[in-house]
Every structure is written in C-alpha cells, then in structure tokens.
C-alpha cells in the first residue's frame, strides 16, 4: 500500500535527509494547505527527548516551504485539559524557536466531528486537520506502557482537543479497547506523509521515561500503519502482537508483516532494546502474559525525591484515581493503568509497580 524508507541521520543532518526523503517520495505541495503535527505531549525540554526534536520539525518545515504551499500550519494538542499549556509546551519543546511564523494553537479551533466508533459517535477535533489538503505527522520513535508503541497512529490522538482525550481514556480503558479507539481516531484523517524522529528514541517505560536510546535514523512513509509496523520490528516486537496494528490491518489501513511491506534502506532489530514491562518476547512470554495478567497488573507509584507535588497527575487522571497525600496516591479500584499520569509528569516522578512487587514488599527477609 505504501513505502517505508529508513535513512541514517543525526540532528545536524536532519534537514538534508528530510529534503532527500521529500524528493524520493515525490511530494508535491504547490498551492496546498499543509498541516504539520509533531509529537508535543507536554511542556518538556528538548534534552528530555520526549517530544519531536525541533531540528526534525525545522527540516520538515523547510522542505514544505520549498514546495510553494498556499499555507503552512504547525501545531499539536498536548495531553492537557483545555489549551492553557499549549503555547508553553510548544515553547519548552523548542517548537516555537524553529517555526514561530507557522505555529497555531490548535486547541482554540475545536469542532465536533462524527466518528465511526463503538465508544462515541462524535469527537472534538482541531478544524485544521479536517480542512487541510496535506497532513504531515512527525512522531517520535518511542515505546508506550499501554499501547506498546507510540508512532503514527498514536500521534493522531493529538488531533483531539483538550479534555476529549480524557473522555476517550475513560471510555476505552484497556490496551485492546484504547488501541481500537486510537485506530478509530486515526481514520478520521490519516496522515499523507509520516516523518518519524528516530535519531534518539525511547525504550522501556515510554512515552515519557528517561530510558533514551541512540538510533540514528529518520523513518519516512506514506502509510503510517506500515511505518509503525517497521518501528515495532526494530524494537523487537511482533507487529501482530500490537493490538492497534493488528486492528489497523484488519480494516485495510496497511500491512504489518515486514515481508509484505515495501521498504527502502536496512531494517534491523535494535540489540537489547528494552520493551515496556507489559510486553514479553516470544511464544512463552505470550502465554505467561495471559496467565499472569492479574498478578502483573501495573500501577503508578511516586518517586518522592523527584516529585514536586505539582498536582498535574491528580488533575488529569481520567478516572479520578489519584490524590496528593502529600505525594500522589493511587486508588487501585479506580486506576485503569492508562499511564496518563506518567506521560504528563514534568519530572518523570512516577514509576510503575505490580502486585507481585507490592506483595513482596510487605515481607522482610
């Protein structure tokens, strides 16, 4: 259905690599309205490598501008309620430094749009995504504690405005149901081109952990599902075991078997790449995961020496499972393990534990 191209890159060469990719894919933007959506999940600094690097955003903007579009819009809807932190997030992530002339607070232009989904029949989405001629998504190469990966499909979650994300988490609480909701949202307006920042990726407890990994790639595709499948392979995952990829394939949105995807450039599994704690490799891991689901259910716990008691986790928990006492305390009866709190914490002050660890911690040897 599409092509996935993997390019060697660092941040100093990003613009040159992206221009080559645009030429390779024959991107024609003359007199078109173009929206560029990086992954800006919150007010995180560039050094944290949680958000799309500004050099990659700048490279995409430069390549787009060179093709004489009618209009360029750059923006995202961070994972916060309302639009109070939208511009702050853009500033701290370096986005405003490289595209201030094109930046738009997308949270200010929400419109109701119908959506084919068993969870809701409509969502509030930034109008620009519905009206644009060409949509470019710029996700990060990252793991995700709930959905296993953060890529093109997950980046489209940012088309939704403010508290709409919280509502979706409340309606779709498991990995399987939330993955289904993400595919529903992705289908509202699939990107025409995906440029993934895989220069520095994230492993382990993504999407906002401190486990960074130098990968040295920029991955480009005209099919976001197939790009996500290639990313999963590079991480050491079987794409079939990633629920949102399996569902996307069933809906005809892309192929997820590496052998059926047209690829350009070498694709190799990254050695000793750390998967999210919910993910286990191989058939044995698959069986154990289903047998031990109850014992291994993960819950967030505070790291007190990192916690500033800012209250962001309490304010944005979609099911009201967190209270500050004075550090975050999680109600296990309410917690749905969506890990929104970990994603939004500005200090990476939340870790995850499971019932085995909690029970073991009650005993002294």
TrEMBL record:
SUPFAM superfamilies, sorted: 4Fe-4S ferredoxins (SSF54862)
Keyword annotations: 4Fe-4S, Iron, Iron-sulfur, Metal-binding
Tree of life domain: Bacteria
Keyword Acetylation on entry: no
InterPro entries recorded: 4Fe4S_Fe-S-bd, 4Fe4S_Fe_S_CS, DUF362, PSI_iron-sulfur_center
Alphabetical list of Pfam families matching this protein: DUF362 (PF04015), Fer4 (PF00037)
Residue ranges of every copy of the 4Fe-4S ferredoxin-type domain listed in the record: 298-327, 328-355
PROSITE patterns in the cross-refs: 4FE4S_FER_1, 4FE4S_FER_2
Gene Ontology MF term list: 4 iron, 4 sulfur cluster binding; metal ion binding
Protein name: DUF362 domain-containing protein
Originating species: Abyssobacteria bacterium (strain SURF_5)
